[in-house]
Design a protein that fits this description.
Layout: H1 2-18, H2 22-27, E1 32-35, E2 40-43, H3 46-52, H4 55-59, E3 67-68, E4 75-78, E5 83-86, E6 96-98, H5 101-104, E7 123-126, E8 131-134, H6 135-143, H7 146-150, E9 158-160, E10 163-168, E11 171-175, E12 185-187, H8 190-197, E13 216-222, E14 226-228, E15 232-241, E16 251-258, E17 261-266, E18 275-281, E19 290-298, E20 305-314
Parallel strand pairs: 14-20
Antiparallel strand pairs: 1-2, 3-4, 4-5, 5-6, 7-8, 9-10, 10-11, 11-12, 13-15, 15-18, 16-17, 16-19, 19-20
């Protein structure tokens, strides 16, 4: 396997040299799409694949240009949600592969024993990894590319930072029940997460045409997914720019949508890490009540954004 990857990567490097700096040549063609949101461009061989397999909804914006990975020798490009790889030695249509970022981040867990799994028409068991995909996770997996797009599940669905998530070899899915029906299943920015985790060279994120923050993103979470009535809850917000870098000094307002009333808080500006939080009283709310918390985020000269998460009130 190692020899095959080395050989494949070597072919990629030779092709780039033989073409006389292929990325530059491709930049001069019409087969490209510029994304001013990040200052990066998607070109062939990745552009057709990007357009045909989900576009922005699947991959998010490009966070690098195409790069020859110094470790593998492969031509790659990082997107907010994924990494595309060019494998010229593969037969069509497998020359472009999505990187196994979930595996590379070490998110694999041991699945349940087969003997412990009860038959359930809402789930599908994958013996390749010993995990299941169920309910909305399975529907999304099937309807948006399946194995080629997401790979096999490498965890069961679980709660992470107050959100129900599931990791796959090539993606991380998140369930947001508080959002409109067609937005409840979302893909986490696994490409950006991986870029920060490794970490990869920050200069890869810099484009010659890009030098300022053009948009912000926000991710919300709560300390406890289930919190007893009469106790306290803490809500967090993490604000980044279009490249996934923390945005300090953003102005944040928190609105807690209690049953029958709203409670508003002005939070401290985001820190150098792009984070801020607020602790508040849950109140004497009926157990089983789902409470939505909403963040309104503003940064100078940029469009205001909103994001939500939720928690359930439970017994003492």
């Amino acid at each position: 396997m190692l020899k095959r990857r080395f050989f494949t990567g070597l072919i990629g490097v030779i092709l780039l040299i033989a073409l006389g700096s292929a990325p530059f040549a491709l930049a001069q063609s019409d087969d490209s799409h510029d994304f001013p949101q990040t200052g990066h461009t998607v070109r062939e061989p990745f552009l057709s694949y990007f357009n045909a397999t989900g576009g922005l909804a699947r991959y998010g914006y490009p966070i690098t240009d195409e790069i020859v990975d110094p470790k593998t020798g492969l031509l790659v490009q990082y997107f907010q949600n994924a990494r595309m790889e060019w494998h010229p030695a593969n037969p069509n249509p497998y020359k472009i592969q999505l990187g196994l970022l979930g595996d590379e981040l070490g998110k694999q867990t041991t699945g349940p024993l087969v003997s412990q799994i009860s038959p359930d028409p809402n789930c599908h068991f994958f013996p390749e990894t010993g995990h299941r995909a169920c309910f909305e996770f399975l529907k999304y997996w099937r309807n948006h590319g399946g194995l080629d797009s997401f790979g096999y599940p490498i965890t069961e669905y679980m709660i992470e930072n107050g959100i129900i998530v599931q990791y796959f070899q090539r993606a991380k899915m998140e369930w947001h029940p508080e959002k409109p029906k067609d937005q409840r299943m979302q893909l986490a920015p696994l490409g950006s997460i991986y870029f920060d985790y490794v970490p990869l060279p920050r200069e890869w994120l810099i484009s010659a045409s890009f030098g300022e923050v053009t948009s912000i993103r926000a991710r919300a979470s709560v300390l406890e997914s289930y919190v007893p009535r009469g106790k306290k809850q803490t809500a967090y917000i993490y604000v980044t720019d279009q490249l996934g870098k923390p945005v300090p000094n953003a102005t944040v307002t928190l609105i807690v949508h209690h049953p029958g009333r709203d409670e508003s808080f002005t939070l401290k500006p985001t820190s150098e890490q792009g984070a801020t939080y607020e602790t508040f009283d849950v109140g004497n709310v009926a157990p089983g009540t789902m409470v939505t918390v909403e963040f309104i985020v503003k940064s100078p000269n940029l469009k205001e954004i909103r994001t939500r998460t939720s928690y359930m009130v439970w017994y003492y």
